[in-house]
Amino acid sequence: LAHSATAVAHPNIALIKYWGKSDERLFLPRTDSLSMTLDIFPTTTRVRLAPEAGQDTVTFNGRPATGEAERRIIAFLELVRERAGRAERADVDTENTVPTGAGLASSASGFAALAVAAAAAYGLELDAAGLSRLARRGSGSASRSIFGDFAVWHAGRTDGTPEEADLSSYAEPVRTAPLDPALVIAVVNAGPKEVSSRTAMRRTMDTSPLFEPWALSSKGDLADMRAALGRGDLPAVGEIAERNALGMHATMLAARPAVRYLSPATLTVLDSVLALRRDGVPAYATMDAGPNVKVLCRRADADRVAETVRAAAPGGAVHIAGPGPGARLLAE
Ligand code: DP6
């Protein structure tokens, strides 16, 4: 029996955003989303069953996890135990290579790695879609990090039972024509602590008059995005990603009270991206629940794009990512 398993997973950046849940307990998203998994900043997680232990222990980068992070991981282990029909507690040891303050959410790579490792350690046999559904219950965006390259996460059906809804919401790979894309990540100095994405999503859905129109237009964005990926049209992919992200941020700005993740430095970087486009470089921006800017461009243009955004946001780090692999088990 395995009893101990180690998995690695990478973060992903959504080009069509997930924002808003139709069911918070099951992590069912209001809309479909589509992302690129990165080839940088892996998370490696080992789950070891501890039959003698009375409780789970969670270690994050060599230190005991506390608070909300610990609570979410233990709740996730409970779910895996319930499904596997097992009771043993576990030791979870996670190494996350996202530089501190990079402002890249680690929940996607974190829960994708945890889902793969915990399923193996507890003897839960799941196919890729099953692992994606499971990872979703830790953090919605983790459902997409099960897969490499481009993945689409289906919102699923909401007209049936909770079981039917749960089964219908998972991610799967998206086939693309050759694109040779890069995402240049401009780390913009974060201001005061931001609203958590969970709280912000809920507030946006509950109070923003722009939310439903965005959700509706996001459907069209996804169809356009699939077509653009299918023909390997990077400028179209970028244009659609940028409008979808700006639309998502507009829904938040219209929430009551407003949720604003974009800072003055974010807008300065956005201006530099526009300047690149005026110079004929196809470069397009997307932003998540923070001030950092991810710029989609051709691999061949990535160094020039990195230089430009570095000059626009002095002091912040810049990272270049390509499409990365899906989550996988490591040999013990
Ligand atoms: C803005 O997956 O972190 O990055 O499901 O509540 O854990 P929870 O939220 P999370 O939200 C990600 C939101 C986003 C857009 C995206 O990745 O699609």
Automatic annotation (TrEMBL):
Keyword set includes Nucleotide-binding: yes
Residues covered by the Diphosphomevalonate decarboxylase-like N-terminal domain: 9-159
Segments forming domain Mvd1 C-terminal: 184-314
A Gene Ontology molecular function term of the record: diphosphomevalonate decarboxylase activity
Similarity remark: Belongs to the diphosphomevalonate decarboxylase family.
UniProt entry keywords in alphabetical sequence: ATP-binding, Lipid biosynthesis, Lipid metabolism, Lyase, Nucleotide-binding
SUPFAM superfamilies hit by this protein: GHMP Kinase, C-terminal domain, Ribosomal protein S5 domain 2-like
Gene3D superfamilies, A to Z: 3.30.230.10, GHMP kinase, C-terminal domain
InterPro entries referenced in this protein's UniProt entry, alphabetically: GHMP_kinase_C_sf, Mev_decarb, Mev_diP_decarb, MVD-like_N, Mvd1_C, Ribosomal_Su5_D2-typ_SF, Ribsml_uS5_D2-typ_fold_subgr
Keyword Lipid metabolism in record: yes
Protein name per the record: diphosphomevalonate decarboxylase
EC class of the enzyme, as a word: lyase
UniProt EC number: 4.1.1.33
